[in-house]
Amino acid sequence: MDINPLNLIASSVFTILFLSSALLPTNSQQFSRKLSKEEMGIKRETLSHLHFYFHDIGSGSNPTAVHVAQAATTNSSSSLFGAASVIDDRLTEGPQISSKTVGRAQGMYIFADSTQVALSVLYNFVFTEGKFNGSVLSILGRNPMSSAVRELVIVGGSGVFRFARGYAEARTISMNMQTGDAMVEYNLYVFHH
Ligand SMILES: *[C@@H]1O[C@H](CO)[C@@H](O)[C@H](O)[C@H]1NC(C)=O
Ligand SMILES: *[C@@H]1O[C@H](CO)[C@@H](O)[C@H](O)[C@H]1NC(C)=O
């Protein structure tokens, strides 16, 4: 009998493949299918306006915005090009820091413009109030900080914000030039179901 080791390997590989394919479910697996809105329980589209204040605090012993990285050339850049911060900022109902928390902005911003101070942002706004409690809106966009109003894109969401889309307007209300701490007013206009 031929006991060439290569044959043994080939036959055991064949056996393993045969056995594992025999273990797979035999019914045909469907990659995609049409689904009705009713089946998903999707109701009529709602347009919501959310209004709150965003507190970006990098100073003090309990910062919610931390500078995590920068390029070797960032210090010599007037636009801080190459710097990156991670945030877990409070969102409040009113402008005072003592105002009721309605959620948090988690994510990051990077200084991504080499000629002016303009951030590229990536935020998940996670809400903690009322029917929005636990639901998230994901936001991307360009934030040129010297503009009075910056428009960001609501790219989607989870929870009550499944299938969400819309836009956000950001207005800086106050900024400490020494620390960079800022308070920003947000107005979100979002379609969801
Ligand atoms: C940039 O400036 C900061 C603060 O002055 C300093 O801590 C850091 O080492 C500098 N980085 C480089 C790459 O020069
Ligand atoms: C939000 O949901 C969390 C977790 O389910 C719960 O502990 C909390 O009390 C809720 N907050 C409000 C304001 O409903």
Automatic annotation (TrEMBL):
Any single GO CC term annotated in Swiss-Prot or TrEMBL for this entry: apoplast
Taxonomy, superkingdom: Eukaryota
GO biological process, one term: phenylpropanoid biosynthetic process
Location in or out of the cell: Secreted, Extracellular space, Apoplast
Pfam families, per database record: Dirigent
Keyword terms: Apoplast, Secreted
InterPro entries: Allene_oxi_cyc_Dirigent, Dirigent
Role description: Dirigent proteins impart stereoselectivity on the phenoxy radical-coupling reaction, yielding optically active lignans from two molecules of coniferyl alcohol in the biosynthesis of lignans, flavonolignans, and alkaloids and thus plays a central role in plant secondary metabolism.
Subunit structure: Homodimer.
PANTHER family in alphabetical order: NUCLEOPORIN-RELATED
Family: Belongs to the plant dirigent protein family.
Name this polypeptide is given: Dirigent protein
Organism name: Sesamum alatum
Native organism taxonomy: Eukaryota, Viridiplantae, Streptophyta, Embryophyta, Tracheophyta
